[in-house]
Amino acid sequence: MMDSRDEVVLALTDDMDTGSSDGPHSPSTRRSAVIGHFLFRSSALVIYILCAWFTTSFVLPFIFILVCLSLDFWVVKNISGRILVGLRWSSYTDDAGVVHWRYDSRKPSPIDSADVSSLSRRELAARMARQQLSRLFWMGLIGSPAIWCVFFLASLFSLHIRWAFVCTIALCMNIANVYGYIRCWMSNMNESESNILKVIKSTATSKMSNLWPLSQTKSGSNTTSEGGLPLVA
């Protein structure tokens, strides 16, 4: 049973996250995740732009756009973020009925954290491919709400209130994912900084503990030599 201390959890433990030489996921799985990451959000934008050319109805395009946005929200929240960047946000309700939010991040693989000079050509290529897919993820995550924001302003200034409402729904669903993944990224950065500070503190404490007996030994030897000197009349 989870409690409030699990509000921010920095580990992913899905059954799908099995390790391999190429990382936690195969290249084909990551490519499929990229396609899913862009498919539904692009479809919603295309329907919004082209619907006036094929129909004068508002209801039918609205339904298609809403379905695409819902599918996009689910895929980005639960699949593409976990596979492409190792991040996921979610929520759970405890026994008291209180909702807690989780911002998870997977620990970097040995290939990602290793020095470039120690990697083989195959491992280096896999590392660069994952970095490129990570950039694509963030571009799609942030670019989509930016486009919907432009459409919202255009429909608002042209007094197309119904389409401004559609853009508002799209913005809310996209910004929710942006906020969740930024929180995951910030939590991961805070955890990394905390680990670095712990290492520095441990190293400094070890150095001080090694120097303290040495200084005590030198002080004791000086006292003995001074006490043993004869007095000259």
From TrEMBL:
Biased composition regions of type Polar residues, renumbered to the chain: 213-226
Compartment(s) of residence: Membrane
Domain of life (superkingdom): Eukaryota
Keywords, alphabetical: Membrane, Transmembrane, Transmembrane helix
GO biological process, one term: vesicle-mediated transport
Transmembrane segments: 45-75, 136-157, 163-182
GO-annotated cellular components: Golgi membrane
Main location: membrane
Region annotation (Disordered) ranges: 213-233
Membrane-protein topology: Multi-pass membrane protein
Pfam families reported in the protein's UniProt record: DUF846
Keyword Cell wall biogenesis/degradation part of the UniProt annotation: no
Similarity comment: Belongs to the TVP23 family.
Full protein name: Golgi apparatus membrane protein TVP23 homolog
